[in-house]
Design goal:
single chain, 383 residues, alpha/beta, Aspartate Aminotransferase, domain 2, 7-stranded mixed β-sheet
Length: 383
């Protein structure tokens, strides 16, 4: 059996589905583009999505000539609720992206039920949610399709990578046809990815995290290393020539290795996150409501800071590995979002405010006591 086939089988086990419904790609966003294309989405079609996401998501829509239509998020979940989605649907709405944010899924069944009643397709954005559940079912189980990411800092990592779970087999023949145009991964890219995975495994620590993160982001932005988002993917709405790329042997091998520890990793994240949540609640800070916890896998724990720059500086000094998802309505783009269809960011007040204040606490690792000590020292900086 090939490693690719073994990888598909192992993914399908987590999703309680058939490996025939799993399709692999160089990045998760490539999978999103592929499934939207298989659905026939293009010019004249609208796709609804949160105004609190990564820029590569609307780019996949724009690459097809369709229009992203944004919806503000709920302050308790950082996700659009059903009522706000209903208000944004028009006769041109062809698809709704149902996002899992930081590991939380909410109202997925209701949104997908509403969409089905109105002949609208649904795709779950599970880039943060693989391995987690919603109402006892694996994330991705309610929509026509779901796409997942295996980038750095995702539930499990292959360096870069992603896949699609095609739940509605109505689109299978079309997706297979679309995938015939996938670009094979070169030996050079395979080698570069192998080196990055090795360096990430053996060089990243609390002490090296910040300088290496800054260096990596710079090098990936200018295209000198393989990055989560490189070059024009975050500066332009034009599809890069090498965007539609297949998965690689390196990703298959690394994915099989990483999935062996996923269940333990998920359990540790949740344990740490619940400790953070209890601390937040005890100190009167924004926290996750008990009603959301069963559906939350806590990839990251978001906090709102009174002064993000100061909080980040203190975290750097204390060697705390903070994340900065989503420091923009369309992370990581700063400045004008007009090319992506957002003329006035204040049209989405909840997402706009959050994007100015949000940082993400790590939930992996076994150093909660160190994190708690940092939070105690800096509690005045947290809302």
């Amino acid at each position: 059996m090939s490693e690719k086939r073994a990888y598909q089988i192992e993914i399908s086990r987590f999703l309680s589905t058939s490996p025939e419904q799993i399709f692999l790609y160089w990045k998760g966003r490539v999978g999103l583009y592929a499934i939207l294309k298989a659905m026939g989405i293009g010019k004249g079609d609208d796709v609804l999505l949160p105004a609190f996401t990564c820029v590569v998501v609307p780019n996949a829509i724009l690459y097809l000539g369709a229009r992203p239509v944004y919806v503000d998020v709920n302050p308790a979940t950082f996700l659009p609720d059903l009522d706000s989605i209903k208000k944004s649907v028009t006769k041109n709405t062809k698809c709704i992206l149902v996002q899992n944010t930081f590991g939380l899924s909410h109202q997925v069944d209701e949104i997908c039920g509403f969409a089905k009643e109105n002949n609208i397709y649904t795709v779950e954005d599970c880039t943060h949610g693989f391995g987690g559940t919603y109402k006892g079912k694996p994330n991705g189980s309610f929509s026509d399709a779901a796409f997942y990411s295996t980038q750095w800092n995702k539930p499990f990592s292959t360096g870069v990578g992603g896949f699609v779970y095609l739940r509605n087999t109505k689109f299978k023949a079309d997706l297979i046809e679309v995938n015939k145009s996938l670009i094979p991964v070169t030996a050079q890219k395979n080698f570069a990815l192998s080196v990055l995975i090795f360096l990430n495994q053996y060089l990243i620590s609390d002490f090296t995290y910040w300088p290496l993160l800054k260096l990596y982001r710079f090098l990936s932005k200018v295209g000198l290393v393989i990055g989560s988002s490189s070059g024009t993917e975050i500066t332009s709405t034009k599809m890069p020539s090498d965007f539609f790329m297949a998965s690689s042997k390196v990703q298959h091998r690394q994915g099989l290795k990483a999935l062996k520890t996923l269940e333990n990793d998920l359990q540790l994240r949740k344990e740490n996150a619940l400790k953070i949540n209890a601390w937040m609640r005890e100190n009167g800070k924004r926290n996750v409501d008990d009603g959301f916890i069963p559906n939350h896998s806590f990839l990251k724990y978001p906090v709102l800071c009174k002064d993000r720059a100061v909080f980040t500086e203190k975290a750097t000094e204390s060697n705390i590995q903070l994340g900065d998802w989503f420091n923009s309505l369309l992370h990581p783009v700063q400045g004008s979002l007009a090319p992506w269809g957002i003329a006035d960011q204040k049209e989405f007040p909840v997402a706009h405010r959050a994007s100015k204040k949000i940082l993400n606490l790590p939930t992996d690792g076994k150093k909660y006591e160190k994190l708690q000590s940092f939070l105690e020292k800096n509690k005045a900086s947290i809302e």
